[in-house]
Amino acid sequence: MKTQVGIIGAGPAGLFLALLLQRLGIESVVLEAHTRNYVEERVRAGVLEYGTVELMHELGVGERLRRQGLEHGGIELRFGGAGHRIDFRELTGGKCVTIYAQHEVIKDLIAARLAANRPILFAAENVSVHGLDGERPTIQFQMNGAPEKLECDFVAGCDGFHGVCRPSIPANALTIYDREYPFGWLGILAQAPPSSHELIYAYHERGFALLSMRSPEISRLYLQCEPDEHIAGWPDERIWEELHKRLAADGWKLTEGAIMQKGVTGMRSFVTEPMQFGKLFLAGDAAHIVPPTGAKGLNLAVADVRVLSRALGEFYASGKTGLLARYSDICLRRVWKVQRFSWWMTSLLHRFPDGNPFDRRRQLAELDYVTSSRAAAQTLAENYVGLPME
Ligand code: FAD
Ligand code: DHB
Predict the structure, then answer these.
(1) Please, where are the H alpha helices in the chain?
(2) Residue 163 C-alpha to ligand 1 middle, in angstroms?
């Protein structure tokens, strides 16, 4: 098999890249380790930046998003038992975010790709990359036990944090920047109408809590927990009890419902530099991870592949390699700003196990500042709705 761009991973990075390249008339093959059903049902992110939504419409995959996405013009920061709204529309010249589940985005992208008769090879086994620093890299894998080889001009490593692409680069060619946080998030999906029209980020002495949603009938809620928390220790009643405590505010009530899904995720900040080695270009979680507090992971993956598709477009149109050579530098400028924002939201809202009363007073002062200074609120708002593309 031969193609122009071999894309490893059918997550947001890989699938958006495939559609962006398709629009430029560039051929690609997407290889995915899991089944179609698995990637279409995997519960993850839910907040789409303004620019991510615009891109879905541009690519002609925004029809369900237009009908089912929930536009949010602000969020609430809750502390000291009271809510404070950050008004995105007013602070960013009319921008908002849209709540639409990541796995729904994935369904829309896969449907568009397959409707155009372009290949996604699901359940590809033992994927490996070769000849990255030569002229023609290859991807080797197995389909139904039979060995296969894909020759390409370029490989896009869109295979997430635990993929094979980043580890295939010689360690001495990369610098890794890493920070683990001393807590995780316990997340649930519940059959309960959301108790608020907008997301609530709650700072509480017992730890952070977040109220989000997926639809007018389904709530998505998170609680700060231990990084290695055992979900078995959290029967449904304990989860609701803790959510009631951390989200409490005068005159407000949290609506409970049947819990349909629950899980724990760790939190880290991670950056690989550069995001390229020879003919391999890393994008999305394969290159960087942010803690989820700023709702940025999916959106940052999309920003990377916008840059990559432009660079590949320039190459195939003119033979110029200028943008490809600058791919990593262009992406990393945004990556580090988004890292800063995600770290800042995380530091502002979580209870740190080694934090003392001084630290907690400082956090409260910062929350008071962000919700009372227009300049500070605007900084949060412009980052949350998404910084402009370079
Ligand atoms: P992935 O989505 O991880 O996709 C990589 C794909 O590659 C996968 O399908 C995987 O199966 C495949 N793969 C892996 N190894 C191989 C291999 N060897 N061969 C072939 N295929 C392979 N982000 C936000 O923007 N907003 C949010 O609100 C948000 N909330 C989150 C909540 C949770 C609980 C979690 C876990 C994440 C959240 N994120 C959020 C982060 C977001 O989900 C990720 O950043 C995003 O999925 C990254 O996309 P990706 O395409 O880079 O990687
Ligand atoms: C959701 C996830 C986040 O990480 C976040 O900051 C806001 C919302 C969500 O899953 O809905």
Answers:
(1) 12-23, 36-41, 50-58, 63-68, 88-91, 102-115, 236-247, 297-318, 322-349, 357-372, 374-385
(2) 10
